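Please decode residue identities from the backbone states below.
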């Protein structure tokens, strides 16, 4: 079966609307003989990781600027797990390890893939690979903060898992991937 046709859905046309930071495209397709159009935002494949120190019960998170949150009327600084885009030729695990070093200043132990998901499949083609890992105080080898040349100004947060979850319940953590990984850690599946 052709990539452009699956389960009775046939793509008729794809038009690039924008080549900004990411690509936005209009897809024209038929479903059950009916012609429809949707916009698809292509922001790539990402990887995210929640490091947990099981001895101390702490997790490492980041706080960083997220313009879409500001545009929606929320605070612009969101608390999240560290994450990044999977570069051409990399695998998601390598991306998670690289991002932990850049954003958290941390070396990971026992990296474990939890699952892969589409965070917002109604309009976004992004696919995320989610991981958990362990760390110890001696694995915090740098200050983190991200890459200045990429405009990153990231604050590193080390919190007890219980405090991080209390932030979720109070609305202080609103990022979906972060909530899912914190829940994994709370369930003892990390």
């Amino acid at each position: 079966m052709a990539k452009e046709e699956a389960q009775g859905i046939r793509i008729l046309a794809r038009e690039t609307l924008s080549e900004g930071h990411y690509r936005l495209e209009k897809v024209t397709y038929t479903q059950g003989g009916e012609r429809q159009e949707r916009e698809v935002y292509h922001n790539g494949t990402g990887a995210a990781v929640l490091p947990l120190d099981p001895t101390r019960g702490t997790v490492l998170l980041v706080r960083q600027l997220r313009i879409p949150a500001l545009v929606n009327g929320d605070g612009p600084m969101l608390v999240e797990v560290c994450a990044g885009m999977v570069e051409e030729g990399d695998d998601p695990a390598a991306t998670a390890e690289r991002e932990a070093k850049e954003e958290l200043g941390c070396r990971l132990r026992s990296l474990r893939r939890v699952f892969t998901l589409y965070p917002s499949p109604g309009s976004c083609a992004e696919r995320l690979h989610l991981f958990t890992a362990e760390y110890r105080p001696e694995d915090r080898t740098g200050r983190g903060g991200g890459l200045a040349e990429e405009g990153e100004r990231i604050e590193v947060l080390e919190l007890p898992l219980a405090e991080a979850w209390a932030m979720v319940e109070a609305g202080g953590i609103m990022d979906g991937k972060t909530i899912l990984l914190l829940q994994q850690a709370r369930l003892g599946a990390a």
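Observation: The two ends are 38 Å apart (CA to CA).
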